[in-house]
Amino acid sequence: MSEKKVKIVKRAERVNRKPSKSKSARKSPSDMVNTVTNWVSEFQQRQHADTAKAIENLIRSRRQQPNEA
């Protein structure tokens, strides 16, 4: 069996210790929501730009074709 070491922390040391998880290391839920919201808005902007470009190309190609009526 492997030996496991246990660190004993006395009361006086406990007061002076810093918390192991800092606030900056963890993202708050609102930060996560803001990140996802930004991703969604960027995705929608790209889709809008791609759609606008495709429609313009379609209209341009229809204008260039002779009328076959």
The string of secondary-structure elements, in order, is HH
Which structural class fits the helix and strand makeup?
A: mainly alpha
> What Rg, in angstroms, do the CA atoms define?
30 Å
CA distance, first residue to last residue? 89 Å
**General shape:** rod-shaped
**Mean pLDDT level:** 82
Major sheet summary line: none
Relative strand content:
under 5%
Helix fraction by DSSP (H/I, runs of at least 4): 55-70%
Q: Give the helix tally.
A: 2
Report the uncertain regions: none
Number of E strands: 0
What is the structure about, briefly put?
This protein is an all-alpha fold and 69 residues long.
Explain what this protein looks like in three dimensions.
With 69 residues, the protein is mostly helical. The chain contains two helices and no strands. The longest helix has 36 residues, at 29-64. The relative contact order is 0.05.
List the helices and strands and how they pair.
Blueprint: H1 11-16, H2 29-64
List the keywords.
69 residues; mainly alpha; 2 helices; 0% strand
